[in-house]
Design goal:
The protein contains 15 helices and 4 strands. It is mostly helical. It has 3 domains: about 150 residues, no CATH class; about 40 residues; about 230 residues, MetI-like (MetI-like fold, Orthogonal Bundle), CATH 1.10.3720. The strands form 2 sheets. It has a two-stranded antiparallel ribbon with strand order 1-2. Strand 1 and strand 2 form a beta hairpin.
C-alpha cells in the first residue's frame, strides 16, 4: 500500500474509532438518557479513542518512511562492487542516483549497466516488502489500540481532560516547529553571510559605493574584480520605498477615514472588499502594469516636459508599489479607527466639536499608534518586494536620488545572483546571503519598532 493510500486508510480507521468510543460511552450509561452520568461528553470519548489510535500509528509511519529509503539504499549498495571491490564514494553516489531514476521510471533500463539494473530490481522488491510490513504494522496498531482503549472506557474516565492535554501538546509541537524553522532559516542565512564576510570586508560591503559582483578574469580587470559595495542597492531600495509610501499612506489613510467615519454602511460593505482586492492581485501583474503602462506613460509625460525619463525608473516602480500597498495601510488604519470607542466621539460632540474636528483632534490621535505601526509594516512589505522592481526599475545599481533614473534594490540583486547554476563557494553567490541578512535585520527592526510603538502608546479603553 502506498503512503497516500495508507494515510487515507488511517484517517478512515480513526473516524471509525471515534464512533466506537462515542458509542461505547453511551452504551455504558444506557444511551442518551444517562449522558449526565458521564464525566465528559460522548464526543470526547470518541476523540480520545481516535487520537490514541491515530497518533502512535502516524508517528510510526513517519519514522518508518523517513528511514526507509536510507536503509534500503544501504542494503542495495552492499551488492554494488567492481571486481569484488566496493565502489568509490563518488561512483557509489552516481550508481545510487541511477537506481532512483530507474525505479522512478525517469531513465530506460538500457541506459544503465547490468549491476545497476539488478540493484534497482532489488530496491523495488525491498521497498515493496517494506511498504507491506508498514501497512500490516499500522493496521495492527490501530486495531489493537482501539480495542484496548474501548475496553478501558468508563463513565468516570476524564476523557475531556485527556483530549485537551493531547491537543495542548500538539499545539506546543506546532509552535516549536515554527520557532525552530525560523531559527534554522536565520542560522542558514547568517552562516553563508559569515562565509561571504571572510572574503569581503564587512565595512566595504556596508559602506562601499560600487556594486559589481563579478569575479576577475584577468588581473588588470577592475570592473570584474568583484566590487561589493552595497550602498547603491540600499539607496535604490530606500528611494523606491519612499515613493511607494508617499503614494500609499495618504490614499490609504484618507480612504480609511472615509470608510470608517463618513461612508454609508451600504457603501462600506462593498467598497472595503473591493479596495482589499488590490492586496490579492499577484505582484507579477503589478509588474506588467508598471512595465507596459506606467513606465511608457511617465516617459511620454517627461518628454513633453523636456525631462529625460528612463524606460525603467524608480518612479514607475514606486508608484505601482504604492498602489499595491494601499490595501495594507487602509485596512490597518480602518481597524484602528473603528476600534476607537464611540464614547470619545460623543464627548467631543458634546463639547461642540464638528465631525472633522472630532476626527482630527480625537479619533486620529487615539488611533495614531496603530496607524503608525501599520505604516511601518507596510514599509517592510515595500522593502521586500521583488517582481515590480525587476520589471519596472531595472537592474542597474546606480547611486542616485533622481526618481526618473533606473535603480535596483536588494531583493532584485539577490534574485540576480542566485539565478542559474551557481557555485556556493564564490563571493558572488555568497553576496546574496549577505544582502538577505541585511534585509532580514532591517525588516525585523521595523517590525519590532512597530510593535513597540503600538504597545507603548496604545490606549486602554473600558
Amino acid at each position: 500500500m502506498t503512503p497516500a493510500a495508507l494515510l487515507l486508510a488511517l484517517v478512515i480507521l480513526s473516524v471509525g474509532a471515534f464512533w466506537i468510543g462515542k458509542s461505547r460511552s453511551l452504551a455504558l450509561v444506557g444511551g442518551a438518557r444517562g449522558i449526565r452520568n458521564l464525566h465528559s461528553l460522548p464526543s470526547h470519548y470518541g476523540f480520545m479513542t481516535a487520537l490514541w489510535c491515530a497518533l502512535p500509528a502516524l508517528a510510526v509511519m513517519m519514522i518508518w518512511l523517513a528511514f526507509q529509503d536510507t536503509i534500503i539504499l544501504r542494503l542495495v549498495s552492499d551488492h554494488l562492487a567492481v571486481n569484488g571491490q566496493p565502489l568509490a564514494p563518488s561512483d557509489l553516489a552516481l550508481a545510487l542516483n541511477d537506481i532512483r531514476n530507474l525505479v522512478a521510471g525517469n531513465v530506460p533500463a538500457s541506459a544503465v549497466s547490468e549491476p545497476v539494473r539488478a540493484a534497482a530490481a532489488e530496491y523495488a522488491q525491498l521497498r515493496g516488502t517494506s511498504r507491506m510490513a508498514l501497512t500490516v504494522l499500522v493496521l495492527v496498531m490501530v486495531v489493537g489500540i482501539g480495542i484496548v482503549v474501548r475496553g478501558r472506557i468508563t463513565p468516570e474516565m476524564r476523557a475531556r481532560n485527556r483530549v485537551e492535554q493531547v491537543i495542548e501538546w500538539l499545539l506546543i509541537a506546532c509552535s516549536t516547529i515554527a520557532v525552530f524553522t525560523t531559527i534554522g532559516i536565520v542560522a542558514s542565512v547568517a552562516f553563508e553571510a559569515f562565509r561571504f564576510f571572510q572574503h569581503v570586508n564587512v565595512f566595504d560591503f556596508l559602506f562601499g559605493t560600487s556594486w559589481s559582483p563579478q569575479m576577475a578574469i584577468r588581473a588588470d580587470q577592475v570592473g570584474s574584480s568583484g566590487s561589493f559595495g552595497a550602498v547603491p542597492l540600499f539607496a535604490g531600495t530606500a528611494l523606491i520605498s519612499v515613493i511607494a509610501m508617499v503614494i500609499a499612506v495618504p490614499i490609504g489613510l484618507y480612504s480609511a477615514i472615509y470608510l470608517a467615519e463618513y461612508a454609508h454602511p451600504r457603501f462600506r460593505t462593498w467598497a472595503k472588499p473591493l479596495l482589499e482586492v488590490l492586496a490579492g492581485v499577484p505582484t507579477v501583474v503589478y509588474g506588467f502594469f508598471a512595465a507596459l503602462t506606467i513606465g511608457p506613460a511617465l516617459r511620454g509625460w517627461g518628454e513633453s516636459l523636456g525631462l529625460s525619463v528612463a524606460s525603467e525608473s524608480a518612479l514607475a516602480a514606486g508608484f505601482v508599489m504604492g498602489i499595491m500597498i494601499i490595501p495594507f495601510v487602509s485596512s490597518l488604519a480602518d481597524d484602528m479607527i473603528s476600534a476607537v470607542p464611540q464614547s470619545l466621539r460623543d464627548g467631543a460632540y458634546a463639547l461642540g466639536a464638528t465631525r472633522s474636528e472630532t476626527i482630527k483632534q480625537v479619533v486620529l490621535r487615539a488611533a495614531l499608534p496603530g496607524i503608525v505601526g501599520g505604516v511601518l509594516l507596510a514599509v517592510s512589505r515595500a522593502i521586500g518586494e521583488t517582481m515590480i522592481v525587476v520589471m519596472a526599475a531595472g537592474l542597474a545599481a546606480n547611486l542616485t536620488a533622481n526618481p526618473l533614473e533606473a535603480v535596483t534594490t536588494v531583493t532584485v540583486q539577490i534574485v540576480t545572483l542566485l539565478v542559474g547554476d551557481q557555485e556556493f563557494d564564490s563571493p558572488k553567490t555568497l553576496a546574496a546571503f549577505a544582502l538577505g541578512l541585511v534585509l532580514f535585520l532591517v525588516t525585523l527592526a521595523l517590525n519590532v519598532l512597530a510593535l513597540h510603538i503600538v504597545r507603548k502608546y496604545r490606549e486602554q479603553y473600558e
